[in-house]
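Reviewers asked in the last cycle whether our approach scales beyond single polypeptides. To address this, we selected a multi-component target totalling 745 residues and predicted its structure end to end. The input consisted of the following lines:
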Amino acid sequence: MATTVTMPKMGFDMVEGKLLRWLKKVGEPVKAGEPLAEIETEKVNIEFEAPASGVLKAVLIEEGTTVPVGTPIAIIAAPDEPVEAPAAAPAIREGPPPPTPAPVAPPAPPTPTPAPVGAPTPPPGGRVKASPLARRLAREAGIDLREIPGTGPGGRVVKRDVDRYLQARTPAAAPPPPAAVPIPTPAPAPVPTPAPTAVPVSPLRQAIARRMTASKQTAPHFYVTVEVDMDEAMAWRARINEALGERGKVSVNDMVVKAAALALREFPALRSSYQEGGIIRHEAIHIGIAVALEEGLITVVLRDADRKPLAQIARESKELVERARSGKVRPEDIEGSVFTVSNLGMFDVEHFIAIINPPEAAIMAVGSVREVPVVKNGQLAIGQRMKVTVSADHRVTDGAEVARFLQVFRRYLENPLLLLVE
Amino acid sequence: MPVMTIREAIRQALREEMQRDRRVFIMGEDVGAYGGTYAVTRGLYEEFGEERVRDTPIAESAIVGVALGAALGGLRPVAEIMTINFVLLALDQIVNHAAKMSYMFGGQFKVPLVIRVPAGWGQLAATHSQTFEVYFAYVPGLKVVYPGTPYDAKGMLKAALRDEDPVIYIEHTALYPVRGEVPEGDYVVPIGKSEIKRVGRDCTIVTYGRMLQASLQAAEQLAREGIEVEVVDLRTLRPLDMEPVYESIAKTHRALVVTEEWRSFGVGAEVAARIQEHAFDELDAPVMRLGSREVPHPYNKHHERAVLPWPEDVVKAVKLLLR
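The resulting structure, written as structure tokens, was:
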């Protein structure tokens, strides 16, 4: 059976190759493994081996032509096997096709008939119907779309087909690279060098990438850090939790959220969004809480945090985080925040800086409560301190305002009774 | 949170903005003593008097022209055109003047003008049942909003009234009785921000206006069959915010655009084009569009039903898209 030779993929990021030189002439016999052509990629020039034995029946692209990976470039077949040159790869020729004198019209190249649903393999060299997503996934996994049966409308290869195909391949039978760089002598057991692997980017990760890049590129960030004396807050938290008993537990973060929400009442600029033509000021103080999931970071939204008692904040944020972790978030759980709190305290982090979660104007990064030496009334003592950094959008606010906001925020945490009465 | 209809939400936005800002006033046909053809402005004439709630002759071009002049002169007019069908008579004022003033005079003048246009159908026959939002969405210099919930209706009208540019504010008459939560007090919903109204994973519906409600109903029905669709509400047609759409398609890989307009050359065509420009590699199927049948809108109620898209059509389209 005739073999269609395609432009090989020699490396993860190779998308096209240039055929420098044919090393065999049409009509010449070739053996599998013999150099067939010299190919130039963006990185190297290499000889490319014939994938099958027989006679080189046709070359489909001329020397000096660049074609995408996977494009048919030649046909190898048995000497007596009649071969119809398939429709030359459409990608290769710009401008008018060279005149092909055909005195006696041979049967037209087989027009690719739509493959019946579930057809195993479309005719080699024919164009494979595949969705853009399926093409991308196949390219990333380094597999040839023609190997994948399409089950979409009209035999189109869609995402589920690629997924199924990848699943069916046992991990043991990892695919050889489509065309290995020829090794002249059969090396006994090549020491495997771990090749870099392409990891598919999850939608969440893509969203994070897009949003964080946009934030850093459009919002001029500045940062203000303060240290909060947490002695009182920690004492009150212990007392509150003792009193609550079975009815819940207030975390440091709940107190931070409440303190930030109360402070935001006085600082409308820090709960606004900058946009072309004006600044939108948000009146409802919905606080975003960053939650780390396996797949990445999401922000759940505690609505009207300034108006809720601490115990309710504790209960609701626990529910929100649980829903986020179990993948059951509702639209209102993740929308509408006007300011975000990101807390890495549980990881024993002294201090960090966050990127603003657009379209918000500011984000608060919270470190651990740490026992540190402090000076009290001229005496060295042990105090509990927490560092907090606000990143803010300079288009809507300035350093002095953020500093004042942090003063108010700190006053709440250092006088935690205020958290209970407001 | 109080629950109210879209009609009440619009009225409340008008009342609050008139209380807040003395420059805001209303003019249009029957908006005053009669309380508005769709009763949206009911009570405002009694509350604010004839100077700020002005009845006009039946002369749409004059209504918009006078309102435009008032806006240039420093007021914040709300011109009501009784239905979107009659807005054709005022298109020259809108397209050639309101939309272009700021540009042609180098930004020396701003046109803080809101034109409220009820749109819809209901046995009103071919000349009174048209879907024209694309006429405005096509024009640089205009902002075009089309809320689909009471919350958005109030917040976006407030945003429109505080905007420095001419805003076409479209109200679907079939949505007037739709109820939803509207918080007490002042808030705005920014113009030019789309919103995910329902989270899902299997496909993305991009829509607005009445078809938002129809799509949400379809989504409920599909959910009972195990199909989870994500519904993105455009809310603003110009400037069009596609980011949430792209983000959604990166998750679902399939998109259906649902509009009430004729599909050819419409908002849905623009949305579909942008999706393939910006999210091509995410698509696992061609972008599908659902709209009205391309005939002049019939009077007969059975025919009328037959030309419009309904929730069951959305359900069918989603299933076709998910093949």
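The CA atoms of residues 250 and 282 of chain B lie 6 Å apart. We regard this as preliminary and will revisit it once experimental data from Aim 1 are available.
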